[in-house]
Amino acid sequence: MIVGERKPLEEIKEMLKDYKKVLNVGCGGCTSICLSGGQREVMLLNDDLQNAFQGNPVSIQFDGFTIERQCNADFFSELDEMVKNYDAVLSMACGAGVQFVAERYPDRPVFPALNTIFVGADRDVGWYEENCRTCGDCILGETAGICPVTRCAKSLFNGPCGGTSKDGKCEVSKETPCAWYEIYDRLKKQGRLSNIMKVRPAREWHNQTRRVLIHEAYKQRYAK
Amino acid sequence: MNFKESLDSGRFVVIAEIQPPKGNDLSEVFQSAELLRGRVTAINVPDLQNAIMRLGSLSLCALLKAKGMEVIFNLSCSNRNRLALQSELLNASALGLKNILLLQGDHPSIGDHFEAQPVFDLDVMGLLGAAKRLQEGYDLMGNDLKGKPQFFTGTQINAAAKGHVLDLEVMDMEKKIRLGVDFFFTNPIYEVSLFENFIKKVAHFKVPIIVGITLLKSVGMARYINKHVEGASIPEALIDRLMKASDKRQASVEIAGDLIKELRPLCQGVQIIPIGWEDLIPSVLDYAGL
């Protein structure tokens, strides 16, 4: 899941202060699941914005509408007509959703209400942890299912940096376990410690430029 | 005798760390270096240590070398990608610097520009691999180089590790040796028994180990190190000795000197890290009989 977090109200207010009718668009996908950009959060943010702009010389109208997913064009049809009645759109989706909305309505300013934080998992209700940096070259099979790109502060591929504390914590944050300590521990339990002894060559980063993926089954359809 | 020749001949080497200044005024650094002339095997010049922005290792090394001093150029992975790292190694070579200490480097979040993006495009294994490749006449992509740089290559190890962390460190060391490491520097050691425990596990590698000796300047500093510096544990007895001493500078000299005397049979050299007390290094060496 993509995890997002609402921007500070002041920042959102600053973005919207020059508009009169704003449509706040929620997303029923990831940001809804992580309680930052779904239907409920649209209502809450609109309330906050109404209050924040109270006493403003020019009143601003905030309305809300949530679509199933902002990262798929199939879900936009209801929105198309609606957007025409507004002079700005606020999106509560992740960065991918915001860009998709902006591309769909190029004549309307589109603003992000969230900061997209990471790809992660729910540790518990309302508790999310980053687990993947979408590096494009997964080595979890070698590292006992623990991602060193994400979970090592230095994204190291060849073992720890030397700063692991006595209790196995990262030197950058005492709260964070050293990824390589955890990898070592789990590989040891699995009898696969020899994995650590491999010298991994310099990594080929695949996330330097924008990536486009066409599913094998659809290659013919989109062939140019 | 240069650094490599000293290690090759089995001589006990003495390295002094000189931190480049935050700024371009080198007068104090040059004064410190003069105090060490003839007393140390080489001067080690850190590269943005602790992620604090300051003058780089390269220029200070080149300037000290021009004054006839043996230096160890440092390069870390935290702030440069693989192009810059390889280029910096070529820069070093072009300036006649052969001794290199390649490091993982510190995460910017612990330094004075804590919002900087960490690089770590290569890790230290990748950097060691790059140095090896350059010496073979190729870059990391296999392109031919004009000329072959030559290096005497070292890296850092955590010799104060315990338990699982120590097991990992030993594995790490073995990998580094496979990548052509000629010598190791350790983090500062304050407890001889801990180092003894480490050396038992790694002595069979037969690669020279140069132990870090930090001058303890105050009880507060010792307590701070124990609390915040990973891998460091200063025994209470040492802190007590410093606390009771009326002359802290003299106590610091004696503590460092005693540590060197005890560690000398166990390692191939020491690196003295003066943390601002560069002027005390000759006294430490006198006290340690070096």
Structural commentary:
- The complex is a heterodimer of chains A (224) and B (290).
- By secondary structure, chain A is of the alpha/beta class.
- Chain A folds into 2 domains: 2-118, Rossmann fold; 135-216, no CATH class.
- Helices cover 26% and strands 19% of the residues of chain A.
- Chain A contains 7 helices and 7 strands.
- Chain A has helices at residues 9-16, 30-33, 39-52, 77-83, 95-104, 148-151, 179-189; strands spanning 2-6, 21-27, 61-67, 88-91, 110-112, 114-124, 127-132.
- A 4-stranded parallel beta sheet of chain A has the order 3-2-4-5, with helices on both faces.
- In chain A, a hairpin with a 2-residue loop joins β6 and β7.
- The longest helix of chain A is centred in the first third of the chain and has 14 residues, at 39-52.
- Chain A is elongated, with a radius of gyration of 22 Å.
- The mean pLDDT of chain A is 94.
- Chain B has helices at 3-8, 27-36, 57-66, 82-94, 124-135, 163-178, 192-202, 219-228, 236-244, 248-263, 281-288; strands at 13-17, 42-45, 71-76, 99-103, 152-157, 183-188, 209-214, 269-273.
- Chain B has an 8-stranded parallel barrel, surrounded by 5 helices.
- Chain B has a single domain, classed as TIM Barrel (Alpha-Beta Barrel), CATH 3.20.20.220.
- Chain B contains 11 helices and 8 strands.
- Chain B is globular and about 60 Å long.
- Chain B is of the alpha/beta class.
- The model of chain B has no long low-confidence stretch (mean pLDDT 95).
- Chain B is 42% helix and 15% strand.
- Classes of the chains: A alpha/beta (224), B alpha/beta (290).
- The A-B interface holds A 153-166, 168, 171-172, 180-181, 184-185, 193, 196-197, 199-203, 205 and B 77-78, 82, 104-105, 107, 109-110, 118, 120-126, 129-130, 140, 156-158, 161-165, 167-169, 171-172, 174-175, 178-179, 187, 230-231.
